[in-house]
Amino acid sequence: METSPLALATARIIVAALPDGVELGVDEVAGLLAPPPKPELGDLAFPCFRLAKALRKGPPVIATELAQALPTDGLITETRATGPYLNVRLDLGKAAPLVLSDLVRGQPATPPAREQRVMVEYSQPNTHKAFHVGHMRNVCMGDAIVRLLRADGYDVVAANYYGDVGAHIAKCMWWYLDHLDDAGREPPAEGRGEWLGEMYTRANNLLADWADAAKAGDAEAQAKLDAGRARTTDLLQKLESRHPEVAEVWDRTRQWSLDDFAEIYRWCGVEFDRAFYESEVDEPGLALVEEYLQRGIFVESEGAVGIFNEEVKHMPFFMLRKRDGTGLYATKDLALARLKFEEHAIDRSIYVVDTRQSDHFRHVFLTLHKMGFTQAERCEHVPYEVVELPSGPMSGRKGNVILFRALRERMTAHLVDNYLAKYRGQWPDEEIERTAHVVALGAIKFGMLARDVNQKIVFDMESWMAVEGDTGPYLQYSAARTNSILRKAAKADKPFDPSLLDDPQRLQAAGAALVQPEERQLILELAELSPQVHRAADKLRPSTLCTYLLGLAKAINRFSNAKQCHVLRSEGAILEGRLLLVQAAREGMRWGMGQLGIEAPERM
RNA sequence: GCUCGCAUAGCUCAGCCGGAUAGAGCAACGGUUUCCUAAACCGUAGGCCGCAGGUUCAAAUCCUGCUGCGAGCACCA
């Protein structure tokens, strides 16, 4: 749904009352309706500026006239012109069923049937390198975008693209083969990918140290550097040609990394429909380059092959084949794009990759277009800013990284020690562990998603673990409280009765009984759920949904805290209305969080 | 230098398809528990919305210029 059921119903009433000569449709009016700055003013506000020209009257006059013209015996019970705004008050007996019924049934938004297949490529981890917090932003973003698009009615293929070839692997191999003895090559039982990543870092550091010393005039270091470089180049060539000396080792170690990644994705609750590997597109990429060089689309420049995309003014040449005849990242991206188009018949292709590669993707899409792939117009890069640590940008060399395994263990341990320990003995140990997992994951996901994509994120483990304020755990807590209310209500023989939904009269009475401001505000907030999910999907901006859910959680907690809204102590229609509201809030909150990949624990 | 992004409360940010008195979290101070989870709620204090112009009935929001910060910029991925 693009607009809330309340806005839509209200807009119908307003449009019917509009004077002749005003060309505003229901959808348009619904889009203009917004909450007034203060709840005392009304439930929805209609700004009258747009009518001024057509009616040749001042907006305040129009607001006053509309306030008198609108019928107040239906959904709208009260109208008030405040300056250029027309504020309306709604009858909750009618409004509550409109908003809450679908939520309670667990189908808050019936997405339009879109006939578009969308591929979302994200994560793209390199094998033989460690997975750290910085990589999490991409995983969280990509997964949320997949979920949001699915909720919005698209057929989505979630794709990963593993970097399983390239210079970094040659460096790792160099360490593994040349610096370790047989015992040293024995992998640990767990975290073998991370273990390989350490090797890559050591190799990188050693080469960098030699380079520094050589620069300072150290002849011995220069010799070592030359030898090291020669060996890594040799290994890289052998890797690319699948030389028997390295093929078996590559295969085995690569799998260690893939196993690590699979375990991480499992912990994160992230799933892919298709895995691509750089190793499957490097050859086809070079073949494409040759083909389009023959066809005159690509050209030679200083011995290299590429294409001049003059649209990218500051750097028009997009290199696709090096002087030595080998391919680049870009080369593979072309072959991968073709594979995506042909194998999956996708209409739209989304790449979630950090913002530093914006130029690269501009080139890729321009090039695809010039190669004749019309789908290039439906390719889009979703850029996002990088994650840093309080001590500065993440750097493997400086050791300024937090590896995924350590992150997860420290967070879950902190949650158990500081919050969940009090339930020890009361809850099964297994539930405590599971809750720590869900909450730690919620904290990470929310933290990674809540900021706009072009804001840098400083990952400060201390403050994220404080789980106070605008956090994932705050959302989870609000959902857990609704659970708790429903659980206790059922225990007190006051369970929510779903047959209420099939009895319009009872339903109306239940809605009309909700007279407290906290109840009204919660209903109004819930009405925005599906429009907000649609918006986040449409703009590919999970952060906007995060902001909305914080407001919803606030409304839930205000309601839960309000003495005058106590559920267990109420009876009759009020009880029924409140149970309906809490049930809808619970389902809505869980569903909304679910679109971000955040789970709500039963209790916490 | 060129291209892109950012600049809003002490800190971190939201608001940016122009519209009511610019909001939230953290930090500070004060309050709420015989009451469904105090991981909560309420209140107080805190703002030349980077600077200067322009467009408009109306600008944090759109346009231009400037300043500061960050990123990218041919054989890395």
Describe this structure in words.
- With 604 residues, the chain is an alpha/beta fold.
- The chain is 56% helix and 10% strand.
- The strands form 4 sheets. It has a 5-stranded parallel β-sheet with strand order 6-5-4-10-11, with helices on both faces.
- The chain starts with a helix and ends in a 10-residue tail after the last helix.
- It binds one RNA strand of 77 nucleotides through β9, α13, α17 and α21.
Number of helices: 22
> Quick one: biggest sheet?
5 strands, parallel
Question: In angstroms, what is the radius of gyration?
Answer: 29 Å
Report the helical percentage. 55-70%
DSSP strand content:
5-15%
**Which class best fits the helix and strand makeup?**
alpha/beta
Strand order of the largest sheet: 6-5-4-10-11
Shape: globular
Distance from N terminus to C terminus (CA atoms, Å) equals 32 Å
Mean pLDDT: 93
Tell me the total number of β-strands: 14
List low-pLDDT spans: none
Topology, element by element:
Blueprint: H1 5-17, H2 26-32, E1 44-47, H3 49-55, H4 59-69, E2 76-82, E3 85-90, H5 92-104, E4 117-121, H6 133-151, E5 155-162, H7 167-178, H8 192-215, H9 219-240, H10 244-268, E6 274-277, H11 278-294, E7 299-301, E8 304-308, E9 317-321, H12 329-344, E10 348-352, H13 358-370, E11 379-382, E12 387-389, E13 392-393, H14 404-420, H15 429-449, E14 457-458, H16 461-465, H17 472-491, H18 504-512, H19 517-527, H20 529-539, H21 542-561, H22 572-594
Parallel strand pairs: 4-5, 4-10, 5-6, 10-11, 12-14
Antiparallel strand pairs: 1-3, 2-3, 7-8, 8-9, 12-13
This protein binds one RNA strand of 77 nucleotides through strand 9, helix 13, helix 17 and helix 21.
